[in-house]
Records
---
Amino acid sequence: MSENTTEVIVGGAVLAVAIGFLVYASQATGFSASGSEYQLTASFRSADGINVGTDVRMAGVKIGRVTSITLDPATYRASTEFSVQQGIEVPDDSAVAISSEGLLGGNYVELLPGGSPFYLEPGTEIEFTQGSVSLVSLLMKFVGGEGDEEPAE
């Protein structure tokens, strides 16, 4: 009888850990259905390094996530949709950029708030964007000597 009791306890513990992991994973990826966010859109020339689920940050604090990335066949730009937490009002002259956490870190979407007293409505497109910068192209410019150099006399 003690073997059956032990098996039931161990099975219950494994089941509880699995349920806990699923709850954690759904919250970490933003998969859980919460109505406390609104959508904004932006169009980037290059969206390298971001994908669905990438953090959206303002002043280094996560305020949302990227919900979709598609190619606009008319402009050949990456159209992105991202969510922002309710209660965080974004001025209508704000900019959005794809930033890097460092040389080895990943990329994230950064909202750069403007100074306007008017705020973006849900579903609005942010027009001031800066796409991702390719580290390889920057290194090639550095190695190749391109840039701001003094002309030889």
---
Amino acid sequence: MNCPYCNAPETKVTDSRDTGKYIIRRRRECLHCQRRFTTYESIEMEPLYVIKKDGRKQKYDRTKIKTGMQKALEKRPVTAEQLEAALDCIEEKIRRSGLEEIPSSTIGEYVMDCLKDLDPVAYIRFASVYRSFTDITHFEKEVKNLTNP
């Protein structure tokens, strides 16, 4: 790692800390000018692709999942931290599948599993759109499944 101040090639690590999933914060000191600076090291993950229902491929985008979940969770007692934790859980399930291309239906099921535990009302809201409920009987059936596992 070259020093950002004097561009000397020799630096030493004075402190290393985990700052989150797959990210390490390192404090470094230049052996030439003795100035200190911080670097962050993270794992470069392979890109994921989502296979849509019509067969199109699209690069995985966490914000799309977040937007859908936020709509379902609107005016519900769920914190931003809880939503982020659920998104992390979904992303981890996707990564653990080992697939570089994952069907959107699989992601939808992961989202529904997380919402079922997070907030039952949001789960029903999401399910009604995701499964294209056309009448009240679909809602009734899903509520029965939710209350009688």
---
Amino acid sequence: MSFKEKSQSEFIKNVFTLVTGTAIAQCVPVILSPFLRRWITVEEYAVFEVFFRLMSIISIAAALRYPLAIVLPKEDKEASNLLCLSMLISTFINLLLLGVIYFFNNAITLTLNIPDNYSSVLYWVPVGAFLISMCNIFNYWLIRKKAFSASSINKVVHKVSESTFWVSFIHIGFQNTLIWGDLLARLAWLLMAIKQSINNQLSVRYCSLKEMWFRAIEYKAYPLYNTLPALLNVASLMLPVIFVNKLYDESVTSNLGLCMQVLGFPLALISMSVSQVLFQKITESKNKSISIKSFISNLVFKLVLMGALGIVIMYFFGEYLFVLVYGEFYRDAGAFASILVFSIALKFVISPLSLIFPALDNIKMSSLWQCIYFILILLLLFLPDLSILDFLLAYLAIEILAYTLHAFMIYRVISNYEHKLP
């Protein structure tokens, strides 16, 4: 077997491992979702949509993007110091944010249109962001060690725990079922991720403040050029639902949240799994000065075919499927899906390739796109009063424009890399 064939085989094997783990992890919540939507109030789901998006936005910048660099060093000693550095930064930033929420809770609650009886939810946002950030930190160590099976197991632990907590809390009549279940499941994920990382040669005995400082300087491009743009990028993904919660009623927010959850399933199942394996592979190829052009072309072709299948299913049958599975109340979610599936399919193809920027040391190009994307999303706030369908059509146009530009930038970065090869 040639090196190219061996590399392709290893890539497919690793992706399959992550996809299998993700599929198993998502199986329980997907089966449970139609029942949860009938058991839990629309108001609680609307609040959870806002809560989930807020902690997702914060978590992306909580460690100043240093976790991305954990994969890059040749020596584990350097990588372990980056891991410890990331943990310290995340802890400090989330504690600082907790203080901000303490002083401005009422103002934030009013701005986000969160019901008064859910105002205490904001205090748990930094906790959730901290847990997500920590899980990502240890996950990058597992990516570094090519421990994709361990990463898959962690996802299963997370989702099975989440579903178990949700059903248990509903049974005993616990309040804020979704939020508490989410937080406790992420804690279970973190504990498992720590155990898996230790099993895969993680040791903190080499960590010191001096070494962490050296690594912080060495990889300073990540906080300087990628933290704010990455924060803006995730905000761009999460803000539309927050905008909808502010501009429309809770039933619209709940329907759109379900729409995003269902459409996001292929992204979580396949696209993100491809992304994690691709990051490690591109980094390895760069270190060995190996061409990646044909490999990327074949990958994009396969993703386009899968994305096209998703468009056909959701555009023609989306509304019927949502009513069948979730009930008549969520008919609008199906209508929303028939619009947004086009942007989701485009993200499905382009998103896995976004980690090519850090893998090929081109953070600035990625940062430029993320800033442009955020500015385009903010335009939604300045549109005149629109029906929810017109709002989503405007959002769709922005998404297509932004991700087409993203694809062009990725092409330029790959072309520049190929031209520099010996």
